[in-house]
Amino acid sequence: NHVWACNNEDNDIGDDTYGGGDLTSPPIQIPAGGATLRFDYRYETESDQVFWDERWVQISQEGGRFQNLVQLYDDVMNTWLTSPTIDLSAFANSTVRIRFHFSTTDRYYNGGLEGWLVDDIRVTLPELQGCEESTNNSIASATQINLGEELSAGICPAGDVDYYKFTANKGDRLIASVDALQL
Fold this sequence. Notes:
Elements lengths: L3 E3 L13 E5 L3 E3 L5 E9 L9 E8 L5 E6 L8 E2 L3 E2 L6 E10 L11 E10 L18 E2 L19 E2 L18
């Protein structure tokens, strides 16, 4: 019921010296078969590039130092997104802590920006073997649908998200019908 937001109380990540913060999970036991990590996020920072306003997912194994797993960059700003699936199988049979680390890296060009918001964090069992996954797991790789076209696709377990896109004109009225079958 809460969203973690790394910003100041006034929703301004600007700081005279440095801005940033961490959200760290309680200990999580990763089973023998491994697990995956997914979460939803939104951000408004100076830049979406790799060297400014860094957004890192980090992990600590068995109480050790945190190490970087994934850096988010070059993604769509000011839009709620779903993270890529992060494979935690290298940490099977151990206890880990997950940390979301945000750093503005400097004091410049941060005023009035919202920062990094993280929500719906989930650690789940890995996808079942044999699940035929498509390549449309991000906005950038969304599958094009033509108006009036029907298609059939599958959703794999472990938080799979598939993206589709279409082209329409302002004022067009559209109806989308989604029929789901659960076995």
